[in-house]
Specification:
The protein is built from four helices and three strands; from the N terminus they run αβαβααβ. By secondary structure, the chain is an alpha/beta fold.
């Protein structure tokens, strides 16, 4: 892992990181960050059968918290957060190779 990636991970400490939609890209990304000690939430309007039993077990073992179904943003209620319909984040340029 490069120093820039380590710095980026360090910049996320103390923040809640939510992955909305636990598809083929977000599940491994959530696992990666959770393995580095970050507070990660897996949010999806679908249930665990969509994500997969093995994947869910692996995520839970690393401390990932789940928010599934209709209450997918329940972990964030009362935090003052507002969630837009869609929000896309780009990888910081400092992490580009």
């Amino acid at each position: 892992m490069t120093e820039k990636v380590k710095e980026y991970i360090a910049s996320l400490r103390g923040k809640k990181i939510a992955f909305v939609g636990m598809g083929v890209a977000n599940a491994p990304s959530a696992l990666f960050l959770a393995r580095h000690g970050l507070q990660v939430y897996a949010c999806d309007s679908r249930d665990e059968s969509y994500i997969g039993k093995k994947t869910c077990e692996e995520l839970r073992a690393c401390g990932v918290q789940f928010s599934l179904g209709q209450g997918l943003f329940a972990h964030f209620a009362g935090d003052g957060h507002r969630f837009p319909q869609q929000r896309h984040f780009a990888v910081p340029k400092s992490l580009d190779r």
